[in-house]
Amino acid sequence: MNDTDGKNNNRVTVEIFGIRYPLKGVNDVESIKTAATMVDEKMRSLLKQNQYLPPDRIAMLTALDLADQLISLKKDYDEFWHILEEQKGTDRQK
């Protein structure tokens, strides 16, 4: 959601953990809403696990969890891409 080309037209208000955030971004509105829903659901899930955590701690743990998921997905993607490249090389040799 960063304005790299000056075409930052998509505006939406989302609610995360009971707070409404007006957002604008280059991503489509549905993508922004989906991301907000994912963050909200993860924060609420963490709150259920420990009701005594303050909201800032829940937000930090949510960010770490989502970052960990992203790292794992990137690793899987890189491994998959490597396998595909190896397969292409094998196919060319035949």
Automatic annotation (TrEMBL):
Signal peptide: none annotated. GO terms for biological process: division septum assembly; FtsZ-dependent cytokinesis; septin ring assembly. SUPFAM superfamilies: Cell division protein ZapA-like. It is found in: Cytoplasm. Its main location: cytoplasm. It comes from the Bacteria. It holds the Pfam family ZapA. One of its GO terms (cellular component) is cell division site. The keyword Cell division applies. Keywords: Cell cycle, Cell division, Cytoplasm, Septation. Activator of cell division through the inhibition of FtsZ GTPase activity, therefore promoting FtsZ assembly into bundles of protofilaments necessary for the formation of the division Z ring. It is recruited early at mid-cell but it is not essential for cell division. Homodimer. Interacts with FtsZ. This is Cell division protein ZapA. It comes from Megamonas hypermegale.
